[in-house]
């Protein structure tokens, strides 16, 4: 029986709400579909929640180990939105790419992720979580503010660097009204870096890190926009810093118990790296997504990346105890 991959996705459309900025473009979905077909799989692209649930539940129990769901669903609003597919797949005993629902839900919450990782010694800037009851800055300025549960630089512009109390009063209430919870951090003035981690628990490898360069001094939603992608990667990272970042990245993957892939962002202050955030559902565009570019820097192809991620998903399904309940219930 030929294995089948379902690309479970939200497809980006510039006419949809701003909160859909994280969704993959149709070009990316089509590129992934063609690449995976060339690897020898059947491929189905599904983007409707009811259809995805119906198709998965309709797979014969004794054939579910021959299917793979590539989790590209980002949703919006819900703190569980990146965990929809992993939870469903685990419950039905269908393999999926990427991390479990618990890892997805945790890493979408920047504050809780930083709390956990800081407790294990991962360096972070000072940070606070604020809600509608917070009327003044929690610490000395300058501070940087951003939505606590969004990616793709949603809700971020140069005005998010708060240098005056008037700036706080102008920006923070607007963010809270739209995003409900806001993460506040001591401002880091150095360059931003990113790094990828591939593998399952106990067998992780980190890519080479890269500086992320962009116009201005804030990695805003204009930089990250699919219509105006203007960031660039600089791989001229000193050896000592590279080793430090790779060590932190693998330590973070082990603490979280991630699966498949992560992209982790850091920022420098006085030459020292501080964790910004962890992304357990990174983009997979070969054009505008960082993880494929980090992978390809080592001379490995986009096709090899997708194949590796699929193999990691099947291995996770075979060996991880989190699938046992569904497997045993289906006997």
TrEMBL record:
The keyword Nucleotide-binding applies. Belongs to the D-alanine--D-alanine ligase family. The keyword Cytoplasm does not apply. SUPFAM superfamilies: Glutathione synthetase ATP-binding domain-like. It holds the Pfam family Dala_Dala_lig_C. GO terms for molecular function: ATP binding; D-alanine-D-alanine ligase activity; metal ion binding. Keywords: ATP-binding, Ligase, Nucleotide-binding. It comes from Leptospira noumeaensis. Residues 114-311 form the ATP-grasp domain. This is D-alanine--D-alanine ligase.
